């Protein structure tokens, strides 16, 4: 059974940085290994939105316009871990952040294109 465990969330002041980690386990064989890994976030009263994604084979990365130039997604295949380095954090980045893995090549920003989700880690940015 695939499990995704996020860590690294916390509270920071505006302009600060955090690095989120997502450790994946339970990929029994190559048939259920993900094609892409994504980070999503959801603030209270808002829909879940895609933040960044990385295609595990090519290493290609994609970002929401709101985080381009500030966030960086990366992967360590040996550790089955994906990271989200977040710099220049702003209060509007405050949300629960979720890691997700997907076995489809569909649009990275759509939650329905992901098969497994972590439990989330809270990021709070104060002004």
If you had to describe this structure to a student in words, what would you say it looks like?
Helix content is 0%, strand content 49%. The protein has 127 residues and is mostly beta strands. The strands form two sheets. Strands 2, 4, 5, 6, 9, 10 and 11 form a seven-stranded mixed beta sheet that branches. Strands 1-3-8-7 form a four-stranded antiparallel beta sheet, with no helix packed on it. The mean pLDDT is 94.
Number of helices: 0
Q: Indicate the structural class.
A: mainly beta
**Run of helices and strands:** EEEEEEEEEEE
Task: Compute the CA-based radius of gyration.
Answer: 14 Å
Helix content: under 10%
Q: What about the largest sheet?
A: 7 strands, mixed
Quaternary: single chain
| Weakly predicted, low-confidence segments | none
- Kindly report the average pLDDT value: 94
Protein traits:
mainly beta; seven-stranded mixed β-sheet; 127 residues; 11 strands
Q: What's the quick description here?
A:
With 127 residues, the protein is mainly beta. The protein is 0% helix and 49% strand. The radius of gyration is 14 Å and the shape is globular.
Give the topology.
Elements: E1 3-7, E2 10-13, E3 18-25, E4 36-42, E5 49-55, E6 61-63, E7 71-76, E8 81-86, E9 95-102, E10 116-117, E11 121-126
Parallel strand pairs: 2-11
Antiparallel strand pairs: 1-3, 3-8, 4-5, 4-9, 5-6, 7-8, 9-10, 9-11
